[in-house]
Every structure is written in structure tokens, then in C-alpha cells.
Design brief:
single chain; mainly alpha; two-stranded antiparallel ribbon; 3 helices
């Protein structure tokens, strides 16, 4: 009898190297589009944007840099901070 081990009861996200499969497909499409734009217009801005997106979506142990950025913006800019001082 063979035994198969599945990660997290088949609830784990599909990953390819350091990215989710959705992010990896966006990066591949961005690289292809950037190559076409570079060949036609000699413009490297799409390559830079694709590289920034690839850097921000690198995942290590289900945490990405973009998650930290969103949480920091939410904490410092969007959500209200309340402080209560108690007299002892």
C-alpha cells in the first residue's frame, strides 16, 4: 500500500519558486510585454515595473513584502489609533 502526503490537507496555495502561481503568471506576462515594448520603443520602464512587482510579491513562509506594506499603510494612515491613559 502506498501512502501519499498532501500539504495542509490540500488547502495550501500553489507556489512556483518564490511566488504564488497567479503572481508568477503576471510576472511572466509582464516580462513578455516588457520585451515587446523594449524592442519597439526602446523603453525600459515596463521592465522596471515588472521587476518591482516581482520583488514586492516574493513570498517567504506565506508572507510577502506587499502584505507588510498594506498592513503598515492601514495601521498608520487608515485605521484610527486610540490611546487610553489610566490614573493609578
Amino acid at each position: 500500500m502506498r501512502s501519499y502526503i498532501y500539504p495542509d490537507n490540500l488547502r495550501a496555495e500553489v507556489k512556483l519558486w518564490f511566488w504564488n502561481i497567479r503572481d508568477f503568471l503576471i510576472i511572466c506576462g509582464g516580462v513578455i510585454l516588457s520585451a515587446v515594448v523594449f524592442a519597439k520603443l526602446w523603453n525600459v520602464i515596463p521592465f522596471a515595473m515588472t521587476a518591482c512587482f516581482a520583488f514586492l510579491t516574493i513570498r517567504a513562509e506565506d508572507n510577502a513584502i506587499v502584505d507588510y506594506v498594506f498592513n503598515a499603510v492601514k495601521f498608520f494612515c487608515i485605521s484610527q489609533q486610540t490611546y487610553r491613559w489610566k490614573k493609578e
